[in-house]
Design a protein that fits this description.
Elements (H helix, E strand, L loop, with lengths): L1 E5 L3 E6 L2 E6 L10 H15 L6 E5 L19 H7 L3 H7 L5 E5 L2 E3 L1 H8 L2 E5 L3 E3 L13 H9 L1 H10 L2 E3 H6 L5 E3 L4 H13 L3 H14 L4 H14 L4 H11 L10
Parallel strand pairs: 3-4, 4-5, 5-7, 6-8, 7-10
Antiparallel strand pairs: 1-2, 2-3, 8-9
Helix pairs in contact: 1-3, 4-5, 5-6, 9-10
Length: 261
């Protein structure tokens, strides 16, 4: 895998149409500092506008994904300081990424780490992965989407118990509850994630982005509104060259050559 760019806290590599982002603060279990989040969001935004990139992966390596927010930077903050710094604005920018995001999770994915994984569209977990929203144990609640995404991922009753007690759950539970897509041995985590990312990247880019948009809208709209939204996106894809190429390739019994046009 070729190195594309790197900062002290974030490593970015590219393999064809897939960009891999590795959180790189191992001494603090990849705690999500403001600077790390800013580096990650900026890198994802840049690649979201790069036509050569079709899928992005976020990982922390084999030992830990991210063990939460950087508490040291928040412990003595006031309400005014939190409001003025708007620490959570970066998470809103993450929500606007239009290309598929895949989280490769090994070890702890707690607090902000769990929220970061849930911001992604797909999650591949290693057998060592541990998820949780333990904010209640330090006198606050999840602030980067945990109270909203966890119920959607595992159901209200389970999410309520996890958030109100701060309990953790392992990769097998996450798979059983429908939060992750698959569970693999730690040593195979990146390979399995890259195989999935490359499979997504082979599809028609505009159709992939439309499909992601439609699925996310399903969480916000009633069924009639959702079906109407899906139908409009479906019709719009008939204005793309990839739609013509895909259907011609099907009829000619050959692999399609999608260009993202």
């Amino acid at each position: 895998m070729a190195k594309d760019s790197a900062t002290q806290e974030l490593l970015v590599q590219r393999e064809g149409p897939v960009a891999v982002h590795t959180l790189n603060r191992p001494k603090v279990l990849n705690a999500l500092s403001d600077s790390l989040l800013e580096s990650l969001v900026c890198a994802l935004e840049q690649q979201d506008s790069d036509p050569e990139i079709r899928c992005m992966v976020v990982t922390g390596g084999e030992k830990v994904f991210a063990a939460g927010a950087d508490i040291q930077g928040m412990a003595e903050a006031s309400v005014a300081q939190m409001l003025c710094s708007d620490r959570l604005a970066k998470w809103q920018r993450l929500q606007k990424i239009s290309k598929p995001l895949i989280a490769a999770v090994s070890g702890y994915a707690l607090g902000g780490g769990c929220e970061l994984a849930m911001c992604c569209d797909l999650i591949v977990a290693s057998e060592s992965a541990v998820f949780g929203q333990p904010e209640i144990l330090i006198g606050v609640i999840p602030g980067a989407g945990g109270t909203q995404r966890l119920p959607r991922a595992i159901g209200k009753a389970r999410a309520m118990e996890m958030i109100l007690t701060g309990r953790r759950f392992d990769a097998r539970k996450a798979l059983e509850w429908g939060m992750v897509n698959r569970v693999v041995p730690p040593e195979l985590l990146l390979a399995e994630t890259m195989a999935l990312a490359q499979e997504v990247a082979r599809q028609a880019p505009l159709a992939v982005r439309a499909a992601k948009e439609a699925v996310l809208k399903a969480l916000d709209l009633d069924i009639d509104s959702g079906l109407s939204y899906e139908r409009k996106l479906f019709y719009l894809l008939f204005g793309t060259e990839d739609q013509k190429e895909g259907m011609r390739a099907f009829l000619e019994k050959r692999p399609p050559r999608f260009q993202g046009k």
